Amino acid sequence: MAWGLMLGLLAPGVAEAAGKPAGKPPGVAAAETLSQVTGIAISPLMGVGAVGAYRYFKTPEAGRAGLSWYAQPWFWGPALLVVGLCALKDALGPAVPTALKKPLDVVEVFENKLSGLIATGAILPMTLDLFRSLGLEGQAGLAGSGLAALDANGLMGVLMVPLALIAYVAVFLVSHAINILILVSPFATVDAALKALRTALLTTVAGTSWMDDKLGAAWALLIVLACLPLAGWAFRLAVFGHVFAWDYLTLARTRTRVVSGPLTAFLARRVGSVPRRTYGTVSRDAVGNMVFTWRPWLVGAPRTLLLPAASHAIGRGLLHSELLETQGDASDDILNFPPRYNTHEAAVAAVLGLAEVRDVGLRAMWAWLKSLFASKPVAAAS
């Protein structure tokens, strides 16, 4: 169902870009473009692969050699094959053992990220192809050093590319967050619900656009506006999931040697104005304070945050380690370390100048059970 609607969504714009203008006004074309970009952002490899395949088969054989790279069989063939394999994995659902399913989910996270980057490169030529097919390219030229030649249609064409990219990035980040949530979720029912949500969004975008251009654009715009304020949260979750998945996939803990700081970490909760899951490093400053350093969006100027002064310990978890604020037997995590530091908790504690390492989570429960059943009975007094 989603595949058919996706092709119905993409067909009009692709037909125009292939040299068969539908004679639609620029406003309608912009509405179609918004729906197409939103659909591709939700499922990048499916969207770009479907666009490429449709454009290839709709273009006369003599003109296929001049098509953009995403419309060549060497790209859209393998792309749709990968999409089909992922769809087969999802369709099998409970029949796939968890021990096999989670590694496949890890692979799908990287596939989605890679296809998202590839689709970003395809958005520009796709939008420009539509831009040229509407005859706006000449109208949008700048006369001399002024803007006299830029009429309303030309302005729409110029703005179409950056606006399409902004909409694509915002929707893709939130859509990719669904893959991360599927990866970290231990429950098959939650995985199925998240996948159903993603499929429903893709289907509604394609379906509303197929019924009416304006309705499709309005629904796509609502999705974009909902995703814009969530982009920061989704970006942090994507970085978190990528780092954890990469460490698991490459067995990074077997190659890690902890001899000095700073140490890679994520905030486990909001501290001051710095949100949860912010990626950065932790170390001691010159006077011994625990300092967390990060860059906004990973590329901004470095910023530092003094962690709350308290008694600290390293938490040894089953899958990853933590920096804990401790008060007696009670503790609260403030930083999550990536899996590369798992089994290296003593070295992490030494680098940060901490004396205590304690079990947390499932590892703590297992240690408690062992102590409960392995303890020797006390001899009764005579």
Distance between the termini: 79 Å
Q: What's the story with the biggest beta sheet?
A: 8 strands, mixed
Arithmetic mean pLDDT: 75
Number of domains: 2
Assembly form of the protein: single chain
Q: Spell the H/E element sequence.
A: HHHHHHHHHEEEEEEEHEH
Runs with pLDDT <50, length 5+? 1-23, 136-151, 368-372, 375-382
Strands of the widest sheet, in order across it, are 4-3-2-1-7-6-5-8
What is the strand tally?
8
Provide the helix percentage. 55-70%
Question: What's the tally of helices?
Answer: 11
- Shape verdict: elongated
What structural class do helix, strand and pairing data support? Answer: alpha+beta
* Rg calculated over all Cα atoms: 26 Å
Proportion of β residues? 5-15%
What's the short story on this structure?
This protein is an alpha+beta fold.
Structural overview:
- With 382 residues, this protein is an alpha+beta fold.
- It has helices at residues 2-17, 26-42, 44-58, 73-92, 98-133, 152-184, 188-211, 213-227, 231-249, 345-351, 361-374; strands spanning 263-267, 279-284, 290-294, 303-306, 311-316, 321-327, 330-336, 357-359.
- It is 57% helix and 11% strand.
- The protein has an eight-stranded mixed beta sheet with strand order 4-3-2-1-7-6-5-8.
- Strand 6 (321-327) and strand 7 (330-336) form a beta hairpin.
- Helix 2 (26-42) packs across helix 3 (44-58).
List the helices and strands and how they pair.
Blueprint: H1 2-17, H2 26-42, H3 44-58, H4 73-92, H5 98-133, H6 152-184, H7 188-211, H8 213-227, H9 231-249, E1 263-267, E2 279-284, E3 290-294, E4 303-306, E5 311-316, E6 321-327, E7 330-336, H10 345-351, E8 357-359, H11 361-374
Helix pairs in contact: 1-2, 1-3, 1-5, 1-7, 2-3, 2-5, 2-6, 2-7, 2-8, 3-4, 3-5, 5-6, 5-9, 6-7, 6-9, 7-8
